[in-house]
Design brief:
With 273 residues, this protein is an all-alpha fold. The chain has one domain (20-269). The protein is built from 11 helices and no strands. The chain has helices spanning 2-11, 23-35, 38-65, 71-100, 103-109, 113-150, 160-184, 187-212, 214-219, 225-233, 242-269. α4 runs parallel beside α7 (160-184), α4 runs antiparallel to α8 and α10 (225-233) packs across α11 (242-269). The longest helix is centred in the middle third of the chain and has 38 residues, at 113-150. This is ABC-2 family transporter. Keywords: Membrane, Transmembrane, Transmembrane helix. The chain crosses the membrane at residues 41-65, 77-96, 117-142, 162-185, 192-213, 245-268. It comes from Bogoriella caseilytica.
Length: 273
C-alpha cells in the first residue's frame, strides 16, 4: 500500500507554479479555430459574396426602375447577409468543439473554463464588429456607385445614432446565437432554434399576427428583439419612453441574457468526456 501511494505521488504533476495561458493568446487561438476551418472559411466567404450580390442587385433594380434610395436604405440591405450567416459562426465556436470532442484538449490546456468561455465571447464580439464594419463599407461603396450609375444625387442620411443602434442590435443577435450554442451544445439544434425564433417567426408569424390582432401589437414586442428594437433602429430613440425601453430590455433578457447565463453554467459544469 505504501509503495502504491508513493508511486501515485510520484506520478502527480504539480502545475501550481505554471503561469496561466495569456488571455490574448486564448482569444487569438479561438479566432484561428473559428476562421481556420472549412465551415468558418466558407461562411465568411459566402457572407462577403452575398454582400456583393445584394449590392449588385440593389444597383441593378435602381438603374432599371429609376427609383431613388439613400444611404440608410442601402445600409439596411447590406445588414441582411450579416444577420443571416454570421450568427452561425457564433454557434459553431462553441458547439463544434463539443461535437468533435476537441474540448478535451481545450480544457486540458486551459482548465479554467471561464477564461475559455470569455475568450470565445470576445472572439464573437470581434467577429461581429468586423463583419458589421465590412457591411457598412459595402453600403458606403454602394451609395457612391448608385450616384455614378443613376446620375442621381447621393444622400448620406445615416446618422451616428441610427448606425450605432443598427450595429448594437446585430451584436444582440450574435450574443443570442452564442448563448443558444452554449445552452444546447448541439450545432443543428442551436442553428434551428436561432433561425426559427430569430428569422422565421418574426418575418412569417409575428408580422402576420402584428398586422391582424391588436393584442399582438402589445404583446409581441416584449418577446421579440426585432419588434422591440424597431423604434430605435428607425431613428426614434430620442422619442422612446419607458414602454419601448422596457420591451427591449425584456426581449434582450429573454433571448440574450438568460441563454448566456444558463449556457455558461452548462459549459462550466458539464462533464468533459
Amino acid at each position: 500500500m505504501s509503495t502504491d501511494a508513493r508511486s501515485d505521488a510520484q506520478r502527480t504533476i504539480d502545475v501550481s507554479s505554471t503561469p496561466p495561458v495569456p488571455f490574448l493568446r486564448l482569444v487569438g487561438v479561438e479566432l484561428r479555430k473559428l476562421l481556420d476551418t472549412r465551415s468558418g472559411f466558407w461562411l465568411i466567404t459566402l457572407t462577403f459574396g452575398m454582400l456583393a450580390a445584394v449590392m449588385a442587385l440593389v444597383l441593378l433594380v435602381l438603374a432599371l426602375s429609376d427609383t431613388t434610395i439613400t444611404a440608410a436604405g442601402i445600409s439596411d440591405a447590406m445588414i441582411i447577409p450579416v444577420s443571416l450567416l454570421v450568427p452561425v459562426l457564433a454557434i459553431l465556436t462553441v458547439t463544434s468543439e463539443w461535437s468533435q470532442r476537441t474540448h478535451l484538449v481545450t480544457f486540458t490546456l486551459e482548465p479554467r473554463r471561464g477564461r475559455v468561455v470569455l475568450a470565445k465571447l470576445v472572439t464573437v464580439m470581434i467577429l461581429g464588429a468586423a463583419t458589421i464594419a465590412v457591411a457598412v463599407a459595402f453600403g458606403a461603396l454602394g451609395n457612391l456607385l448608385y450616384g455614378a450609375v443613376t446620375g442621381n444625387d447621393v444622400v448620406w442620411n445615416l446618422d451616428a445614432a441610427q448606425l450605432g443602434w443598427t450595429a448594437g442590435v446585430q451584436v444582440l443577435w450574435f450574443l443570442m446565437a452564442f448563448g443558444l450554442g452554449m445552452l444546447l451544445l448541439n450545432t443543428p439544434g442551436a442553428v434551428a432554434v436561432f433561425y426559427f425564433f430569430g428569422v422565421i417567426a418574426p418575418f412569417m408569424i409575428y408580422s402576420a399576427l402584428y398586422a391582424i390582432f391588436d393584442w399582438a401589437q402589445s404583446f409581441l414586442p416584449w418577446i421579440d428583439i426585432s419588434l422591440a428594437s424597431m423604434p430605435f433602429m428607425m431613428g426614434e430613440s430620442a422619442e422612446a419612453g419607458a414602454l419601448e425601453w422596457g420591451q427591449l430590455g425584456v426581449a434582450t433578457l429573454l433571448w440574450v441574457v438568460l441563454p448566456l447565463v444558463f449556457g455558461s453554467l452548462r459549459v462550466l459544469r458539464s462533464e468533459v468526456k
